[in-house]
Design a protein that fits this description.
With 268 residues, this protein is an all-alpha fold. It has helices at residues 8-18, 30-56, 64-75, 82-94, 105-108, 110-119, 132-135, 138-145, 149-183, 207-212, 219-224, 240-250, 262-266, and strands spanning 61-62, 254-255. It has one domain (2-194). It has a two-stranded antiparallel sheet. The longest helix is centred in the middle third of the chain and has 35 residues, at 149-183. The structure holds zinc ion (ZN) (2 copies). One zinc ion is lined by residues 52, 56-57, 89, 93, 222, 226.
Length: 268
């Protein structure tokens, strides 16, 4: 069992769990904590708005330049290339909670759905057949190949600006929190919460998870209808990623945000 987890991905994830411990031995300033929390929410936004709602689901449109910027900013979260991320996520929707779903808590338990599927190292390849709309862009394939580059540039900038303490807390600890926050989508959002819609999977809606992921916690809504930019279908479902995207649409940086059709909302 342990042998299955000894691969480069496990060492990579292990690094992000061990390095933040250095914070106990360094003088940490208030600005380091502000950067840590700010970069948590900024990068959680790009995971929802970039990796998920744009690259995986294409729920809105934008220019090729903004598409590249979205990919770059998403990848500062160190969660792989946008093409890789989108291919795995699209397959999650195709195979939700079946034996073919690589991170289903129903099939293999909570730990495996959260992090174990990555540690197995079997998911490093991209199924290009499901992301043909993305592979046609050479600049996205370049970023996908050098997927750590945006994160390394961010880390270097933080080190040069704020020294070792900012690197440890502002980058490594913040990235660790972003990783776990994102992974709740695969683990807790398929186990903890309510199911408004009768989908064929175990997806749930959960306000607490919606807060920590800036709106991704309405996962049962999302499995019910993947095409909308908005995941909180009702006004009382907190979805700040959507609010920001809606605001950006007024500036014409992005456009054609997909709405939630009324019949989809009502189809309990
Ligand atoms: Zn999705
Ligand atoms: Zn899901």
């Amino acid at each position: 069992m342990l042998k299955n987890f000894l691969n480069p991905t496990t060492y990579y994830l292990g690094l992000f769990h061990i390095v933040p411990l250095a914070a106990f031995f360094l003088p940490i300033s208030l600005i380091d904590w502000i950067v840590c929390i700010s970069l948590y929410f900024i990068r959680i936004f790009f995971i929802g708005a970039g990796y998920h709602r744009y690259f995986a689901h294409k729920t809105y449109k934008t220019s090729r330049l903004v598409q590249f910027i979205l990919a770059f900013c998403s990848q500062t979260a160190m969660q792989g290339g946008v093409v890789w991320w989108a291919s795995h996520h699209r397959k999650h929707h195709i195979n939700s909670d079946t034996i073919k779903d690589v991170h289903s808590p129903k099939q293999k338990g909570l730990f495996f759905a959260h992090i174990g599927w990555l540690m197995e190292g079997k998911c490093s390849k991209t199924d290009k057949a499901v992301v043909k709309d993305l592979t046609k862009y050479p600049e996205l394939m370049f970023l996908d190949k050098l997927h750590m580059l945006p994160g390394i540039i961010l880390a270097t900038g933080l080190y040069l600006y704020g020294g070792l303490s900012m690197l440890i807390v502002g980058f490594f600890l913040s990235t660790l929190l972003v990783l776990h926050g994102t992974w709740t989508i695969n683990s807790l959002m398929h186990t903890w919460g309510v199911q408004r819609y009768k989908t064929t999977d175990t997806s749930r809606n959960n306000l607490i998870l919606a807060i920590i992921t800036m709106g991704e916690g309405w996962h049962n809504n999302h499995h019910h209808y993947q095409n909308s930019t908005r995941q909180g279908f009702f006004w009382y479902e907190f979805d700040p990623t959507f609010y920001i995207l809606k605001t950006l649409s007024y500036t014409k940086i992005i456009w054609k945000l997909n709405p939630v059709p009324q019949k989809v909302k009502d189809n309990f």
